[in-house]
Amino acid sequence: MRDFPPPVRAFTDRGAEAPDTRSPRAFLLWMVRQNGSLFWAGLLVALIWMVPQTVGPWMVGRAIDTGIVTGDTATTTGWLLAIAVVTVFGAVSGILFHTVIVREWLIALYGTTMLVTRKALQLGHVLTRRTPTGEVLSVSGSDGDQFGALMEITTRAISQLAAYLVVAAIVLSTSVRMGVLVLVSAPLLVVLGAPLLRPMQRWQGVERSRNSELTSMATDIVGGLRILRGIGGEDTFGGNYAAQSQKVRQSGVAAGRWLAAVESVGVLLSGSFVVALMWLGTREVAQGRLTVGQLVSFLGYGLFLIQPMRTFVEFAQKWTRSVVSARKAIAVLEQRPPWVHPEDPAALDPTAEIVDEQSGAAIRPGVLTMVVSAVPDDSAALADRLGRYLPGGDGTLVSDEIPEGLKGRAAKRERAARARAREEQARLDDERARRPWGVTVGGVDLSRVELDEVRRRILVSDNAPQVFAGTLRSAVDPLGRLSRAEAERALYTAAADDVFDALPGGWQGELEERGRGLSGGQRQRLVLMRALAADPDVLVLVEPTSAVDAHTEARIAGRLGEHRRGRTTVVMTASPLLLHHADEIILLEGGVATAHGRHADLLAESPAYRSVVVRGADADASVLSHLTEES
């Protein structure tokens, strides 16, 4: 039996079994298989749990016929003791069944969360470009819960189906008429309830889609709350969120109506079944074909069979919800990374020269190189290439969310079109993954190096940093590898003393999610400190001081080179304070390297460089004079 939490190795470990994403039903079947022996153990316990409920009415009927009717006290007492034993057995097996089934539910729930987490690790920065954030969160949370509920109801439905057939056989062997009534009741329930399942599934899909969009809006609002307050946009975005939440409520109510209709059919049919069974049983007794004990048994069976019939209805409801959830999960989990493992991996030499073929930029090893561009996106794109990240505008957003106005064939065509778009994106990714990357280190193209090796050797710290909740120490050193002296050295270089002082408890001070208690400049220096503390062989920084004041920037500029001495460091910036300390500067024009040299030389010789670095005529003269004197 599998331990909890479930061991999920898909997507990040080679050779691990990946989910079956061919169809929602194939995916759900794969989820059942992932429970392994636990599913069969749960089914066995569920079947044992059904035994007392199946034989109980028969035992009561026998006690009446052989003990109470005949006045045999000893026989009656014997049957009572047997019924008591069966009742205790049923209670114990019920407790065991509940324990196993909750474990099965949790494995499906948290197994889905781990699948999404590992897919996020596999895709990295690509995931948010291909799938809406709200959809990813919904698959990890609410959809995982639906899969857990399906595991529970499937086990219970199978065990109660077996009990239903056993009871039908018992009744049929005693009374053909009443046995036929029992056998017909469940199929009749399916026939009457089936037409209601399709509209219920459609509205559940609409509710799921609207809820996914609502989750995306919530994450966007939380992420940009500080900015929204700064421009007075809270009311606008809050109003949009409120309007979308009302749409979710409306679709939930509509889905609830169809769900209530299905429930009503189940209640009506099960109640009618008990009435019919009682009426027919009374006639059978009056005609001498049944004994009183058998009638009581049949009445007990009639009441018992309400439970399987309600379970079949519940299974239909949860199955339709799970199919909707599975379709959404497949849209996330079937995405493939836009890179492949090289057949003959090469080693990456961090002490070698780095050359970017697209721009022509050559970065000498072991020196502090800074890249200047009039278009920040060009230098940011170079940073992405150096770290083997896809460019920001790459790919199209892939989602299984079908517009609400599309129904029937139109919805099928739209879903097919989106499936073709995903296939086309996968084809383009495969083609790209097999082409040379265009960045070489010592003559070795990065496409020939394992991606994990690239990530270990080359660290890119961009200007959209992520800060997670936790202690300052865990934010700076998440792997716990630094000594106190090393952490303080990174703190000093990043001029982040005020970040340390602002948190009660120093290194053990608690940061809020996204670093909400810090200013923009403090968050930026915290991220710089984290990048320096990682001490990679090659460090690429994108605008590391864009949110700090000039005095703090000057301190960082004066300390960065010494901190990274002997290691390759690339900084994308147009700040004169930083550029003055560079060992070498590369100028990009139209994304192509057109000049390189020292800061003072480029100021004197390159008008294009001066136009980027010096802001305004007065600033041009003052900065040029100041820096020329220092040099």
TrEMBL record:
Domain of life: Bacteria
GO MF annotation terms: ATP binding
Predominant subcellular localization, coarse grouping: membrane
Cellular localization per UniProt: Cell membrane
InterPro entries: ABC1_TM_dom, ABC1_TM_sf, ABC_transporter-like_ATP-bd, P-loop_NTPase, Type_1_exporter
Keyword flag Transmembrane: yes
ABC transmembrane type-1 domain segment(s): 40-321
Entry keyword annotation includes Cytoplasm: no
Membrane topology: Multi-pass membrane protein
Keyword terms: ATP-binding, Membrane, Nucleotide-binding, Transmembrane, Transmembrane helix
UniProt xrefs under Pfam families: ABC_membrane (PF00664), ABC_tran (PF00005)
Domain ABC transporter, residue spans: 340-615
Listed transmembrane segments: 38-59, 79-101, 153-172, 258-280, 286-306
Name this protein carries in UniProt: ABC transporter ATP-binding protein
Organism: Terrabacter terrae
